[in-house]
Structures are given as structure tokens and as C-alpha cells.
Amino acid sequence: MSQLEQELNNARNTILRLSTAPAVAPTPTPPPPTLPTHPDSNIDPRLFPDYGNPVPRPGSVDAMGGDAGFDHHPIDGQPFYGSSSAHGFTQQMYGGILQKDDTPTEPEIPIDPALMEPVPNSSVPTASYTAPENFSLLPRELADHLMHLYWDRVHVLYPFLHRSSFEKAYEDLWKPKSQHHRHYRPSSGLGLGAAEDPSSAIFHCAFNAALALGMQFSDLPLSEKERLSAACLAKSKDLLKLDLFDDGNLSLVQTLLLLTQYFQSTNWPSKCWITIGLACRLAQGLGFHIEKVRPGQHELSPDEHEMRRRVWHGCVTLDIVVSMTLGRPAMLLGSKARSLPKPLDSGEESLPSMTNDKKRPASIDFFTETVKLYRIVGRVLLNIYRINDEQDERSSPAEEDRNDDMTLELNNELIKFADNLPETLRWRRSKGDNAAADVLERQSHVLHVRFLHARILIFRPSFLNLCRSKKLLDGSNGTTKGTSSLPEPVQTALELIDAVREYSATDATGAWWYNVFYTRTAAMVILLAGACPPIFESLGEESWQQAWVNCVEILTKNLPQYAPVKTCLRTLTALRNNVLRQRSEAGSKETKGSQQNPVSEFELNINGQHFDPFEFVETDLFSDFGFDFTQPLF
């Protein structure tokens, strides 16, 4: 009986299974998609900010406007604004620039559409935001050394942090929480240090940016500096989340200024430009451009007022610098709403007096003069280069006359600026032998090269017009009209090369990427003078060659051999070789007994098919030159 019941149950189960089974065999269930994993993480990878985003390629232009030495990879949406001037030289130097049809394409990886759905907002932070490694510290001795370099080499030129409060927070990094200073007031708005707890994400973001900047002045091997700088930058970027931008505060703007400075040393020009743009917008939104406190805002201490003033001027100044180096529009040109920076009430910025005078110099004096100088540079960009104009049209004769008047007016402003400098910042003053003298020497030199570059910037468009003009020669004798002495930009370029050569290998210099920028700017003017026979005759073969030797010395001996330094030298060498080749061809024809004026013969050669120093420049490049390079050079 029991056996019969068991058989009936088996039959019943078989009938039930057959009645509910599908007519067609089911499709095997696909395995769940494999998601990219992050080591040491148990968080869904879709929550990571970099999930699904392609790894960005290095740009073909570095953030100081020079050729980065990378092949150009076309992308779907080319940047609207052209690259900066020096990048055009790459087109001739490298034969490896890919043609459109030859550009390799990467295989497309299919992605499950379900994975592309937006992840609901959650209170769970992303792994990169909370990852302990982003809050890790370098060995104390190394961190102390790098912070010392930051204060000594960067902060004295860009005083964007409240040093005393930042240093208190820095000391607390190495102490237990119970031993921290009780001075952190997030609502105070003083900025990094006093307003930000040392365990906060924004503090570590800025701290790592400061370490990366200090690293640039260290004596560590080049490969080690690059590795450690990249590690610090990675932590800083991981901690800089969009949530921080909801309200914004002084600390965030300060952090963006530090990152802008560091990005200037990289091959990421767009990151540099966008970062300073974010800083400017946040500063405006927080009212930093307004001198008085808004109604309803809590009362600010004198130091809090001053830090906001400095940060605003830092935004304006770096906005102009980045616009100048990249040839892109600026946001805050012409801003004069705020009064000039002043020393902090705490007196921490006073330098030891080097004379018997009762008035002690302050390190902030340099930044005050920098603000004045870049107000002039901003006017140069607006009125001569018209960097913010929406239309790019050739100037009419009347406009060219106005440009000439504006050139003289701005040059007079620049001369007046130099005449009114404080005695401690004059570059022709006698040098001291104490700590204050070291700071002032560094500030004086940096201000000097900025001044010389500004003069080149003012006269460069008219100098290029002079080189192009067919009226350069005076008939049969080949004399030069209006060039009995060297043109202003040529003389200034010689001075700039000498100044950079003298200081670029010393502790009195600024950042290496600025030295590359100044050397490239001056060298291009000198090389262009070599392609313009009357100006070359005024300059002389010996002076022309010596200027080149000095440039090579700067780029091979004085500066660390980062990729942008080497690329700058290759770029300039390519241009110089073209000038020398054309001069050699002109000399050979003269030796063969040509009856033509040798200078005119040289001009005819350049007019022909042989050589235009800028013939390989793309039409949308050299925007910072303020000149149309689609026209023949002569």
C-alpha cells in the first residue's frame, strides 16, 4: 500500500512539472555583468565618480601655453578657443601628428544600459571621498620640509592662506583629537586653518595641493618629485567633491587658487582655465568683490576682511595670468572694486628691518605691487589683444592708430609703475645678507621679470607688424626706417633673458614653469629679429648668438628637466634652424655675385616658397600674439 502511494505521488509530480514547463527550452540566464572593481573596497563601483568615464588623455598644450610634446588626438568636440602661441611650432617639429583618416580608434566596450541609469542620491559617501588613503600623511620630516618650501617659495609670492591658523591645523594633524586646538569655527570664514578642522576634506585637499607646490622646489630626484606630486594631486582631486560647491566658502576658493597654481605646471591647460574660473565665480557669489559686509552677514575681524580681499585679488590676478598664457577670455578683467591688499593685524608678515628706518617692510607689499602690475596687463589684454572680443576682424587704419596711442599710454603706465615701487622691491637696489633680504630679493626678481614680460606684451603686436611691413626697407641702401636703435621688444627680450639666466638656478627665482614661459617668449622675439634683416643688423650677429646661448643654458642647465622644458628647447631650436637655413641661402646667392641688394634678396626669399617662421602655425593659434598669422610674414 505504501509503495502504491509513493508511485502515485511521483506520477502526480511528473504531471505537474510537465504542465507548467515552457514549450521551448529557456535561454540560459546571462551571468551578471562584471563591474570594475576598486581595491580594498566593498562599495558598488557605480558609485565611484570615475565609473564609466574615459581616462583623459594628456593635452597637446601645457598649462603655460607651450607645446606639451604629446601627439594630438582629435576628439568629437574640439575646444572653441585656440591653444596658445608656442603650440603651433609642434606642427613642424614632429612628423608623428596623426592625420584625421589615420587616427587609431579604440574599440567600443558594450555596457549594460541598466548600469548607465543614474544612481539615486544617497547619504552613503563615495569610496574615494571616504577612503582612508586620501587622508594619509607623508612622513613628518618630509611633510615639514615641503611645507617650509611652500611658505618660503610660494606663499611669499601668493599669500592666499592665513599662515598662522593653517600652521596650527597642520600641527594638529599629528596629534590625537583630544589635543587639537579649540579654535575651529566653520562659520568664521577665515579660511584654511582657523575655519577648517584638520580632519576635514577641504583642509586635506588644500594641504595636498600645498605639498605638491612645495615639491616643485625640493631637491628630490625628478622622478620622485613627479611621483609624489602626482600622488598628492590625486588625493586632492579625490577630496574635491561637487557637494562642496553647494554653498562654497573662503576655504574652497583658496583651495582652487592653489590647484590653479599647480595646474600651471602640468599638461592640462583646460583644467587650469576651468579651475580659476570656478574660483572666480565662487568668489563673486560669496561677495568677495564687495568691500563692505552685506546686511545680515556676521561681523568679520580685520584679518577675515583682509583674507577675503587677498583671495579676491588672487582670483583677478590668476585669471589674467591664465588668460594671458593660454590666449583665452578672462572673467574679471578691469575689476578694481576692492582696495589693495594690506598687512595682517597680527603682524606675522612684517620682515626684519634692514635699515635704521622705523618702518619695517612687509612681505605683502610684493602682492600689492603685483595687483597693480596685472591691472596694467589686464588693460593690455583688453585694449591691444582684445582677448575678450567676440569678433576677430582685421583692424582698420583708424583702429591701428588708436592701438599705437594705447601702446604708448600703457607703456607710460608701466614706466610709472616701476618708478613708484617701494625701495625694498626695486630690482636695482643693493642686496642684503639676512632672511628678510632673501625674501625681498626673490620678490624683487619675480616682479622684475613680470615687468619685462609686460613690456614685451605691450610692444609685440607692433613689432610683428614692423617685421611684416614691406616699408621696412628704405629703397636702395637697405637702411631701416625707425629702427636706428633696437625695437623696444627686442631690447626688453635681451634684458628678460639675462634676468632669467642670472636667477633661474638660484633660490631667488620663481616657479620653473614661469621661467620656461618667459624664456620662450623672449627667445621667440630674438629669433624673429633674426628673420628680419634690418633689425638683425641693428642687433648684431654676436648679440643674437649670445642671446641664443643664454636661452640654451637656461633650458638645459638652470631648470629641472621636466618634459615641458625639453619640449620648449626643441621647439625653439626648430624655429632657429629655419632662420639659419634661410640666412645661409641668402648668403650663398650673395656670394655668387647677385646684383641685388643682399637684404632685399633675403626678403624676396622669405616672400617666396622657402620660409615663413610661422607658416606651420594653425590659423586659430597664437591668439595671445594679437596678430593674424594667416598673412605672409613679409
TrEMBL record:
InterPro entries: Fungal_SecMet_Regulators, XnlR_reg_dom. It comes from the Eukaryota. Residues 272-349 form the Xylanolytic transcriptional activator regulatory domain. Keywords: DNA-binding, Nucleus, Transcription, Transcription regulation. GO terms for biological process: DNA-templated transcription; positive regulation of transcription from RNA polymerase II promoter by galactose. GO terms for molecular function: DNA-binding transcription factor activity, RNA polymerase II-specific; RNA polymerase II cis-regulatory region sequence-specific DNA binding; zinc ion binding. Signal peptide: none annotated. One of its GO terms (cellular component) is nucleus. Residues 25-36 have a biased composition (Pro residues). Residues 18-46, 338-357 are annotated as: Disordered. This is Xylanolytic transcriptional activator regulatory domain-containing protein. It comes from Didymella heteroderae.
